[in-house]
Amino acid sequence: MYKKIAAIFVLCITVYSNSAMAQKISDDKVILVIHGGAGTIVKKNMSAETEAQYIEALQASLRAGYAILTEGGSSLEAVEHAIAVMEDSPLFNAGKGAVFTHDGKNELDASIMTGKDGKAGAVAGVTTIKNPIRAAIAVMQKSNHVMLAGKGAELFAQNNGLAMVDPSYFYTERRWKALQRLLKKDSLRVELDHDEKNTVIPPVDMDSKFGTVGCVALDHAGNITAGTSTGGMTNKKFGRVGDSPIIGAGTYANKEVGVSCTGWGEFYIRQVAAYDVAALMNYKGSTVQDATAEVIRKIGAAGGDGGIIALDRNGNVAMPFNTAGMYRGYVTDKGEVVVQIYK
What we know:
This protein is an alpha+beta fold. The protein contains eight helices and 15 strands.
């Protein structure tokens, strides 16, 4: 195990309530950035206790990734550990906190991509893998494929020694009640995990949050890795899969930048959002801040909501979103940790 460095860890937690466009970006080199979902996250609706729980969980994720990097570990290992912390928390719509489908199941998706070699792995629609991000990594490292789905992905994970659980492990009362509320309202509706507006096609009741989690890390060798994990939409039907396990839509990394997205997956898939950030930087010469802002603008213009985190090879970070808030944070090479929630 990696050495605990809590004694020397410099912690500066900042929760912002100002404009997302004016959010603080550190002058130091950022080495790891995370998100835990975007949507209608408003301070007046957040109890002090709940806010503290989210801050603590985001801190724990950042610390886990930072510990790996400061011990000389790879960006891949850092992303794995940072995301696994959020998957193990019932606060986020990933792993333990995953939402329920129309049939009362928890179907999980995840993906990973390493920028140094362009390799990638993903799983979709899995129900018994404790940490889907680790299954995505196994697909990348131990198979000739990029994405495995359903029972096949679960068999592959089990054969490769990953932690497997009974589906009941993912049950949380809060998520179950969210499904029951939605079923009473309209059995055709699906719910994204943080917003409050409706649409006609498809019918979506967005009164909660986009709880997908993600991480991008930059290691001592200059290598970038990006990963994303989610439980999808409450009340989703027919094996629906969003952008999170799709390379180029929800996750992308190359030698210049890493990207992880959170939001209404269908729009991110249509916009090829994660790759579009890299393309704007490569072909247009955009900065990571300008590229992510442009992609979020396109998502919004098309009718979608959500956010993006991105980190370039120089340690510049961007975290734009077009919702009321987004759980997000980063840590610099000097150990400064920043957590942000609201606009």
